[in-house]
Amino acid sequence: MATIWRPPYRETTLSPAVTSLHPDVILLDWSSTDRIALGQLEQLRAWTRAPVVVLSDNDEVGAMVDAFDHGAYGYVTKPCAISELAARLHAAYRRRPPRPPVDPVIDAASFSVDIGAQTVTRDGQRVELTATEWKLLEVLLRHRGTTVSSRTLLCAVWGPAYTHEAHYVRIYLHRLRQKLERDPNHPRHLVT
Q: Where would I find the OmpR/PhoB-type domain in this sequence (predicted)?
């Protein structure tokens, strides 16, 4: 989406596919009965850096605070004036972070990752990753240089229902280290 005020607007289901759309701003419509809304917001934060404006029929201060605590940029309650919603979206658009390079290739000391082609090579040889290993690596690469919590990783890779399964992250990081690090017992790139 090039801008937020001109088409093409795209409606999509919440999935890692949001990342491939490269949105400038995301409008997340919540119902007050939506019990997984905060998990959805955490997933979005793991998948994209685009600002998220929440549109909700819940006007309680606690709901708004929770949304901001989980990464929302703005919060608008329904019913609302279209001009207010448009103004909030424009403000989010103006303050959006710069876009990362499209489908970058990331080179580490012993391995290289082509995010666009979804390929990994180590010492010149292609490394086969499972779908889950790839999702985990991709989330880590899109947030490289920052600490990503186990909860965020679980939500982004396995979904909000798995946020208490911290051992999944340990198991899959171990597998990634075995495949990618020169010395898996002393990792340089996949560090906890």
A: 103-192
The DSSP annotation for 66-103 comes to HHHHTT-SEEEESS--HHHHHHHHHHHHHTPPPPPPSS
In this predicted structure, the answer to whether residue 187 has a pLDDT above a threshold of 70 is yes
Assess whether pLDDT exceeds 70 at residue 56: yes
Mean pLDDT to the nearest integer, 17-43 = 69
Name which of 143, 132, 113 is nearest 42 in CA terms.
143
**pTM of the shown model:** 0.54
Per the structure, the count of domains in the chain is: 2
* Residue range of the domain that includes 77: 17-94
Identify the pLDDT of residue 4: 36
**In the predicted model, what is the mean pLDDT of residues 175-192?**
88
Does residue 99 form part of some domain?
no
Tokens representing 171 are 């198991």
Of 54, 65, 50, 55, the closest CA to residue 95 belongs to 50
Q: How far is CA 124 from the centre of its chain?
A: 29
Contact 156, 135 (CB under 8 A): yes
Question: 28 and 87: one domain?
Answer: yes
How does 73-92 read in b/e, with b if 16+ C-beta sit within 10 Å? bbbbbeeeeeeebeebbeeb
Q: What does the block give as tokens for 163?
A: 């946020």
State the CATH number of the domain containing residue 175: 1.10.10.10
Provide mean pLDDT across the span 111-138.
Answer: 88
